[in-house]
Amino acid sequence: MLNRVRSAVAHLVSSWGAPPPRPRSPDRLHATSTPPAAPPEAPKSPPAGAGSGSGAPAKTTEARASFSRPTFLQLSPGGLRRADDHAGRAVQSPPDTGRRLPWRTGYAEVINAGKSRHNEDQACCELVYVEGRRSVAGAPGEPSRGQGLCFYYWGLFDGHAGGGAAEVASRLLHRHIREQLRDLVEILQDPTPPPLCLPSTPGAPGSCDPSHVVGPQSCWPSQKEVTHESLVVGAIENAFQLMDEQMAQERHGHQVEGGCCALVVIYLLGKVYVANAGDSRAIIVRNGEIIPMSREFTPETERQRLQLLGFLKPELLGNEFTHLEFPRRVQPKELGQRMLYRDHNMTGWAYKKIELEDLRFPLVCGEGKKARVMATIGVTRGLGDHSLKVCSSSLPIKPFLSCFPEVRVYDLTQYEHCPDDVLVLGTDGLWDVTSDCEVAATVDMVLSAYEPNDPNRYTALAQALVLGARGTPRDRGWRLPNNKLGSGDDISVFVIPLGGPGSYS
Amino acid sequence: MLNRVRSAVAHLVSSWGAPPPRPRSPDRLHATSTPPAAPPEAPKSPPAGAGSGSGAPAKTTEARASFSRPTFLQLSPGGLRRADDHAGRAVQSPPDTGRRLPWRTGYAEVINAGKSRHNEDQACCELVYVEGRRSVAGAPGEPSRGQGLCFYYWGLFDGHAGGGAAEVASRLLHRHIREQLRDLVEILQDPTPPPLCLPSTPGAPGSCDPSHVVGPQSCWPSQKEVTHESLVVGAIENAFQLMDEQMAQERHGHQVEGGCCALVVIYLLGKVYVANAGDSRAIIVRNGEIIPMSREFTPETERQRLQLLGFLKPELLGNEFTHLEFPRRVQPKELGQRMLYRDHNMTGWAYKKIELEDLRFPLVCGEGKKARVMATIGVTRGLGDHSLKVCSSSLPIKPFLSCFPEVRVYDLTQYEHCPDDVLVLGTDGLWDVTSDCEVAATVDMVLSAYEPNDPNRYTALAQALVLGARGTPRDRGWRLPNNKLGSGDDISVFVIPLGGPGSYS
């Protein structure tokens, strides 16, 4: 696994550091042939303060040998070794000297207790500049007439079956989002409703012939109103899909195997967009109140979607799996007896007579952290996993895994936030052993111990959360103060202050 | 339409008054051949107070000519004519003399303002006795050893394209539920967890060989816990499916065309189960607080499910529809331009280049009450509609309509209810013009004007709700006090007091 990840990362530096290919229309999303060539990109003109992720590829990757950690940690070779030490499990945070993360964001991470060779979580935090496409009046390649847009970006990527997908996503997903937003730069800055139809030339300011607006169809007397917000949501959704597709297209050349959960936050024009695909979690803690900003996508929470897909497309199950759910594996000697089951359209249980095909392995089995799709994978949304097959079988898992995130929107302007109001992002290493309420209590405890203007308070909070989930080495394991086992998983946490945008941006 | 409904109803009395066929296993659910013969049923032994729906078919149907109203209204021929008068739109309620509805339930209804020839809503309110199947020790036909179970049942059925489906559902759905519960009579009364597996003989007390409980599979170390509550939910879900299937099987003989939304409440062993398939709605008003007990299933709320089905099964769309959503109909001259769209996995919008196949009619179009599936139907869950085709086409609508309800459970024992706490059920005629808050205000206003023990207070409340949604004839229409249009639809309302079960049952 080590070598596979190493060669993948080395290869990425040369080819994937370039901006991703620019999609032209969604029909391209389903193409599986050779990837289109990346178009040359106009030089970036980031505004003052824009981070490194807005244009050029990250620069430090070449120096890394077998694995990498987020650039913003600014790890020395010695620091990198300490970050990779399963025995010590030292908590890593950006140095409190030098350039801080935007909004004074706090970050902390710790490697797993031996579950995998390296820390398979990755993180990214950037200020990204979006330049509009050339205007209709300009020549091709000429910059847009108007001002560009900036968005703040935070991403947590929890890899599995190797660190390749998380590594790639942490470097490229925000660029896919930027590409999707380029068509929208002028539209999002125009207070009038978005035009429903644009001329075929990208970037031309446009709305169609007004006579089209009302169609003649009886059930369709008027057009739908589409908000600016829903355009940003659509851009994020399509960016996830294009990122996933790029991984699929280039996986054979680069052998970036494995996959990753992706939890991404974007701040754009007064609103916070939280996009989640996987089992990471985001919550807002505001004046002590908890506001969930994501939900987890697992074989249990997505059971009905998975079963429906297996029911409608039985060829995806081969002759090995049944789309029905049973409370435990059916035994051959139970043929003819009646067992509890659930079909795709049921939330309750009923008894059915066991038949031969019920002896197949269930599509979804197990409970909690042990729940699996096709006995193979425990998350149902994320990026990558295109080469993942059912163990000792040629059945691909991917059709059941969706790359689409759920996006929730939080309007930052609707509430007067104080410096203790934060958005907390964590990979499942945090949430497996820490409840929302415990996180809120830690937020209160740590932040009240620091002055509101102390630039280290959010990093201190992130560290406290990671330490609280890791525990301390005791009794042959990492244990929490209550003597329960701490998380042996990789743990990564962002703490984003919500009182910040006006002051810090 | 009148004659078709008449012959269907006449036919129903003779054949569908009998109990529905007893399903043996879910695999029968997909059979489309001739329906199995209804097995002879043991004589019912309903406990004192059990209503007419528990065993024998309703008795008054033969007397009806062209349409029927709920039996419990006890309408005379003159009353039936008044109930059918579109001009007067007199509110109908059960008489305040004679046998009351269980729990002193309030009910009121009014016919539409001319939208259809008859009132296509139907209602049912019963105490249903469930006799367990014969025990393993007994001979076939012998009653179960243990005590049977009773459940209280309320159903509202909002028909469309004829009153046949609503009429049939109001007579038979609770019997399907009873049949589904018969296997569970002993299990639900046993405080130990339900057995996962039963012997093949229905009714035998059973659990399987304990050695089966833990399977050898690595991802399946233990069995799932299944609650009694989830068995009742599963029974209701399967009863809806069997009701729908019976309509499908018998539709050619009886010509019961049309379909209906179904909103059903069951009270069993301390819990209230609210099952909804369609656009009716149930809310609890408890101490002034509103607790939603259902959600509506419409082309808008189910857009993604419908689009996914069209995407996975394009043959269901013929060459006439596209599964993509556009904010308005695409015009041929817009080919090559870029228009906003949403795919099945998106909640946001993005632009795509218009291609030839985008000119097809969208699977889901329109907004609000004018939203339609395949330009044909405005609800996406319900019973019936098996003969419904896309206008001037042979494409069936049914695969997109699901008969499965969403079931929500409310534990009546977890709260000390007072006589002013009620569960309000209404067809969309109520909710189209009345908000949840307005209903809660009416609950407060009406109930506070009556003594807590007044047996008429819940009927008075139901009448007030129906009158408030209907309005009064003025300015060429039925108008509300604020001069807005009242509902011209059929309106039906149940008011179920939650302080009741202990006192009234």
3D architecture notes:
The structure is a homodimer of 505-residue chains. By secondary structure, the first copy, chain A, is an alpha+beta fold. The first copy, chain A, is built from ten helices and 20 strands. In chain A, the strands form six sheets. In chain A, strands 2, 3, 5, 6, 15 and 16 form a six-stranded antiparallel beta sheet that branches. Chain A has a five-stranded antiparallel beta sheet with strand order 1-20-17-7-8. The two termini of chain A are 41 Å apart. The relative contact order of chain A is 0.14. The N terminus of chain A is likely disordered. Chains A and B meet through β4, α5, α6, β10 and β11 of A and β4, α5, α6, β10 and β11 of B.
Mean pLDDT of chain A, to the nearest integer, reads: 82
N-to-C order of helices and strands of chain A:
HHEEEHHEHEEEEHEEEEEEEEEHHHEEEH
Instruction: Return Rg of chain A in Å.
Output: 24 Å
Number of strands of chain A: 20
In brief:
2 copies of one chain form a homodimer. With 505 residues, the first copy, chain A, is of the alpha+beta class.
